[in-house]
């Protein structure tokens, strides 16, 4: 088999995964797209290892060894990633990345106040505490 076939297939898989990472909003679909990209890299590593082993007299199979490491890293990544996504889904009720980013920044997307709700009350409490601390000092 010629090297172009697995290389083209790998490029298509990687582009599909990249589109999935950039276009999807669900965190689980983003993780699946990352896995698709890692599998495209694995296909490239094995294809180039076989192609180079035909030309070299001594075969080290380094591409296949790197593929095994990549598979182990991908398994750890998907395990930890799914655990995080499930924990966030239990706490917040959604796995939508845009909503999670907005809540992590501390503001509601419908709220247009840059200081957030209750900013005046918070500064008033802080100023009262500062005055009490100065009076006791």
What does this structure look like?
This protein has 137 residues and is an all-alpha fold. It is elongated, with a radius of gyration of 25 Å. The protein is built from five helices and no strands.
Average pLDDT figure: 83
What Rg is obtained from the alpha carbons, in whole angstroms? 25 Å
Number of E-state strands: 0
Order of helices and strands: HHHHH
Terminal Cα separation, in Å?
83 Å
Task: Sum up the overall morphology in one term.
Answer: elongated
User: Could you estimate the helical fraction of the residues in percent?
Assistant: over 70%
Q: What are the low-pLDDT stretches, counting only 5+ consecutive residues below 50? A: none
How would you characterize the largest beta sheet? Answer: none
Structural class estimated from helices and strands: mainly alpha
Give the helix tally: 5
Strand content: under 5%
